[in-house]
Amino acid sequence: MSFRWHSYPTPHDAAAAAARHIAELLATTLASHASASFAVSGGSTPRLLFDELVSQPVDWARVHVFWVDERAAPPTHESSNYRLAAERLLRPARVPENNIHRVCAELPPDIAAERYRQELAAFFALPLGQPPAFDVMQLGLGADAHTASLFPGEKLLEDHERSAAAVFVEKHGQWRVTLLPETLRRARASLFLVSGADKAEAVRAVFEEPADPHRYPAQILHDNPGVTWFLDDAAARLLKK
Ligand code: 6PG
């Protein structure tokens, strides 16, 4: 498997490089389209990314923001991926409300997932449930090589038909709503932003172990030419230079 990747001395350097890359990807899309669709992940890594993105020259009035996954919690809850993005990107960058397509994660998970599938179908003008193609998608990586909320052994890793679904994450005892593999794969341009020594083994496994997305879910994208990895040196330390 061949991966396009860059590593940087610090998490901040990696986030700044990823932010520049996202801004370039969005500008490329907007050069020939009226709007661009941008799906963001949650967790802790995007904090630095969002802070850097706010200072990038992006025409946010034409960018529609979606979520790769969301925890089953109200938008004000500390675990909410929407809350993190709202505080660190959407409000500071003045992204128009109509451009924000959050998961209604305050609802029961299956209803939240159905609402999100409806939102995706409406925005992308697709039949309900059909996986859309985002212009730009930002992904993270767990120390167990999960991405989105698709964890090792998750049966939804075999769901190649639908766009998004509710998932119970045993490891965290938490319901979530997540984009499904085909939606991740169809993104025209994706980037992983991964930092920290605790991710080094997961990065190595995803890059160097034989393709086995059930064991290493981030390998869903292993043969996707539109993927770029932004790593700090700590997360990249086990990769062959
Ligand atoms: C989430 C994310 C998830 C994240 C990884 C890495 O909702 O938690 O979407 O896929 O990208 O778990 O999380 P950290 O950035 O916190 O290490």
**Cross-sheet strand order for the largest sheet:** 1-9-8-5-2-3
Q: Structural class given helices, strands, pairing?
A: alpha/beta
What share of the residues does DSSP label as strand, in percent? 15-25%
Low-pLDDT stretches are: none
Identify the bound ligands.
6-phosphogluconic acid
- Distance, first to last CA: 15 Å
Overall description:
This protein is an alpha/beta fold. The strands form two sheets. Strands 1-9-8-5-2-3 form a six-stranded parallel β-sheet. A three-stranded antiparallel β-sheet has the order 4-7-6. The model has no long low-confidence stretch (mean pLDDT about 95).
Structure summary:
This protein is α/β, with parallel strands linked by helices. The chain has 7 helices and 9 strands.
